[in-house]
Amino acid sequence: MKSYKSMSQEELSALYEELKKEYIDAKGKGLNLNMARGKPSKAQLDMSMDILDALSSKDNAITESGIDSRNYGDLTGIPEAKQLMADVMGTDPQNVIVFGNASLPIMYDTVARSYCFGVNGSTPWCKLDKVKWLCPVPGYDRHFAITEQFGIEMITIPMNSEGPDMELVKKYVEEDETIKGIWCVPKYSNPTGITFSDSVVRAFAALKPAAEDFRIFWDNAYAVHDLYEDKKDELIDILSECALNGNEDMVYEFCSTSKVSFAGAGIAAMATSEKNRKWVESTMTIQTIGYDKMNQLRHVRYFKDIDGLKVHMKKHADMLRPKFEAVLKCFESELGGLDIATWTEPKGGYFISFDAMEGCAKEIVAKCKEAGVTLTGAGATYPYKKDPKDSNIRIAPSFPTPEEMELASRVFVLCVKLVTVEHLLQNK
Amino acid sequence: MKSYKSMSQEELSALYEELKKEYIDAKGKGLNLNMARGKPSKAQLDMSMDILDALSSKDNAITESGIDSRNYGDLTGIPEAKQLMADVMGTDPQNVIVFGNASLPIMYDTVARSYCFGVNGSTPWCKLDKVKWLCPVPGYDRHFAITEQFGIEMITIPMNSEGPDMELVKKYVEEDETIKGIWCVPKYSNPTGITFSDSVVRAFAALKPAAEDFRIFWDNAYAVHDLYEDKKDELIDILSECALNGNEDMVYEFCSTSKVSFAGAGIAAMATSEKNRKWVESTMTIQTIGYDKMNQLRHVRYFKDIDGLKVHMKKHADMLRPKFEAVLKCFESELGGLDIATWTEPKGGYFISFDAMEGCAKEIVAKCKEAGVTLTGAGATYPYKKDPKDSNIRIAPSFPTPEEMELASRVFVLCVKLVTVEHLLQNK
Predict the structure, then answer these.
(1) ipTM of the shown complex
(2) Domain residues for B398?
(3) B128 touches chain A (CB under 8 A)
(4) How many CB pairs under 8 A join A and B?
């Protein structure tokens, strides 16, 4: 195919007319498709329904160590659930606290705790003049929303194929004591799908932060979410790497089963050092008498162990892979060679990151919406929802069926072409 | 029986020797009984096990209005659960937000939200020089722990048989704009077991707070927890009373099924005005994508409606009543007429409040502990765990069996006598 940039004014004008017609046709189809959020599909949720039978009236609700999961107490979770979540994260169960139905509230509460009470005895962030945060971009909108809510100034860090630009991270973290944290999705990153390389993880672990209360928020949301058996990304364990550098208190790691069992009714955990856990527990014990241990037990009884969980994740992969492939195939066949966009080809996770020509993303999303295809808002992958290049769009293929995903992709590439040609014509 | 205070030195000394012997005997029994916390017993939890079958792999997990309870979204809870919790509180479902597994985190988060972000646009409490709070005493230790954690200065308000001393409450709330809240357990209060009278509720509703961000934290934890069918306490609805006074934003009401279904795995809710709900939702939507809607659906499918829930609560009452009666019978027969203690006789809830002779509570609790009976720490019913009279002890009869409760009560009254006589001898 011919690169759009090499086309003459006349060629572009003719193409534009053609694309406009196609777009009017597409709108006429009355589609209503949503690839805005990384939501599991109905069929994927159906796969987990047997979990509900893993704790029935016929079962006893007592854990192996004799904890009555139905009653108050056991603030940090049941031992079996700690083991399972530790295995998901590749760490030791003694590092783990199991919380409630999702990991986002753990992250929010961790920021809130630091804001109100400080970090392991440091000055509460609400008493500081300035708190800053590093945000690798493109990144996860709900992360950015938390730091924005607490009035924390967000500084963007470019992502590359190995992870965040670590030279820049190092410079900020080691020179500026107002930098208190960084958001990371280290495996199958949201939205680029890349996994942090060993050297990036080691560079994180070797940081010498200017601030004693600097923490890495390591959101290992897609730890077991491989799409391909034969080409999985591997992420090395940040906790042990940090310990090797005498930096054991520098990381909070988070994970959940939101995209393993049920998106609204999973279990979630944090792994971190003993000192950090004690600090977390000191406010946790005021906030709650304990999280839902019956749901913890239900999950453990069903999955049995990490091997059981991985068998389950293969079924998810079989369901998700065709959706990713439908998108990527459409992108390749329709946009390949046009030199108007780039996109990632993740080996796991929930997203594809798409970079349109600068200045086109918002308009593409709007055009898609008009034709019945809802995307994540353009800019959402940047702090304050402001993508300076107006280029990045997050594609979330998990919710629609593969057939719907193909339809949606066709509308999407059409809108990409239409908006890009319009943009090129205006800027000729 | 003869009043201890009227006894001579000789009589007291003789009694003391006798009680000491009895106490040594009691210690010899090697008891291990716990009436420290308002925990449901195993048998009580067993009564709720069928809830687990109300949402199995054979059921569909879709609500009546078409919400997939397994997926993300629906921040404020499913409509069916709003209806059920509204009926528990005696309010309208449109006032209700349904949260996670317990109400304590809702209260904590509500204080935390006000501390970090203010109340409906007011100055965040963390930016104020002084925040004060009213604490009716004796009261609930976990309430006081929250306000203590946030550095809020707690002022005690005496409780009487109708509720808090409302003249004092009015004086503080209307004259001091640093007073930002008050803790209340309006029905079967923790620990006195009394229910706020209509005139107390109306006095609350008619308050004209000096601070626009003053809120009543109305912890309606025991709304449906009557012990007797024929002599229930009735609590009038604070939300509608407040509305009558143009004070609709002044109250947050909380409730949960922690002591209806499972103590660790129930559902919990807040009822409040539209303005307040919007403010709550503005941070909720950052903190979480939604609470566990499957557990909400499980509860609604099992209880069906408030009538079903009340039938269930009658079974609880049948189980709890003998425990309360065992305690009260023992108190009456062993302590009646001795003029050394008073106690409440609640018609519902989870606690009996016991007032020993001044200066004796700590020692009684210690002596009980030594004889294998664990009580709530003396002082726990006061802010900062400081009971100025060292007199109040909270008795929690729910966890032991009736037989254990009788044994525990015997040890308790023995310790009361022993410590009191010792005290009288020292002060002769």
Answers:
(1) 0.97
(2) 4-44+310-426
(3) no
(4) 163
